[in-house]
């Protein structure tokens, strides 16, 4: 939450909160953010910038902000300045600029335009060029903290509803009551219940953007309002670790993402050349494409030799194996048969599937993602399909179970072109 005063005569941007000067300028904030990203290159920072304590035009303010940013080396690689929503993988290692000012000068990149009414209690906003939901009920004078908690929880619940998955949720846990209460005192009333609410919903895999005060990191500081809240939110970003019980079976919750065999820790090489891939007789993996966003989810894609050529060992963790045809049949039968089982295995959010993602409920907890696969020399089906290996071949064929975005079915596919594929592996407990 970056609030800047613009001195138009010299172009200097300094930090203010209402009438109070905070003794920092914009360069101080940029340096702090870039230093953090240098030490934590997988993370993303959002600077939501607003003009405070000055009344210059939005275009002049946008120009001043851009002048500061453009003086930074390699700024095009370290800032997101497009007025479009980035994929998370595009934003990693960058500061995403969101401006609560409407710049109309197309020659001045100013990031995403976001704005909403003051003291918003939780509203759908549709005038910024992409859909928002905002809860910014900042005044304790107009809403009791128990109502504030209810509104925060409502935003988290909405963020996990698949029908809203193209909407950005901005949910402020922070609020004030003039000078009557210290902010830390109010925050201690709000943060712990939100932490408890998130922990009570392990099925939630997103929280939206939560704006936190005094969230802390378990350091025991008296200014920490909830030691676990940050870690709880971070944990929600994981699509699931460990295992899930489905009927009588125990499955891994994620597709395999290893670079070494389990027993002897020998490396599984990456092979990119198509001709070399087809001629392999040993295990290998390959990328779907050179796009880091594509290969950022859903596990790695392996050839069939990783499974069938056991000279180098097995790939699943100890106590687990690549599922047999019988294993898959047991799963499908438990989920109601092939016509509906696929939908019960697919993640319902459209983050990793294209619409309509027919029948997707993930009521099984399998959480399959539309990873796509590689076959016959090309990458196929990103966000549209996923292929999972079966460990026992069928008459010299490689056998898969497949899910797709336009059906609730799970398909059994066999192909004699065994060496042409790179597909996903989901391990099951022995």
Features:
21% strand, 430 residues, 3 domains, TIM Barrel, seven-stranded mixed beta sheet, four-stranded mixed beta sheet
Could you explain how this protein is built, in words?
With 430 residues, the protein is of the alpha/beta class. It has 3 domains: 1-115, TIM Barrel, CATH 3.20.20; 127-238, Phosphatidylinositol (PI) phosphodiesterase (TIM Barrel), CATH 3.20.20.190; 243-429, no CATH class. Helix content is 24%, strand content 21%. Strands 1, 2, 3, 4, 5, 6 and 7 form a 7-stranded mixed beta sheet that branches. A 4-stranded mixed beta sheet has the order 8-9-10-11, covered by helices on one side. The protein has a 3-stranded antiparallel beta sheet with strand order 18-17-22, with no helix packed on it. Strand 2 and strand 3 (20-25) form a beta hairpin. It starts with a strand and ends with a strand. The model has no long low-confidence stretch (mean pLDDT 88).
List the SSEs and their pairings.
Blueprint: E1 2-7, E2 12-17, E3 20-25, H1 26-39, E4 45-51, H2 58-70, H3 75-78, E5 79-80, H4 88-91, E6 95-99, E7 112-113, E8 121-125, E9 132-135, H5 145-159, E10 168-172, H6 183-199, E11 209-211, H7 229-236, E12 243-246, E13 249-252, H8 274-279, E14 285-286, E15 301-302, H9 305-308, E16 320-321, H10 325-334, H11 338-345, E17 373-375, E18 378-380, E19 385-389, E20 398-404, E21 411-415, E22 421-422, E23 428-429
Helix pairs in contact: 5-6, 6-7
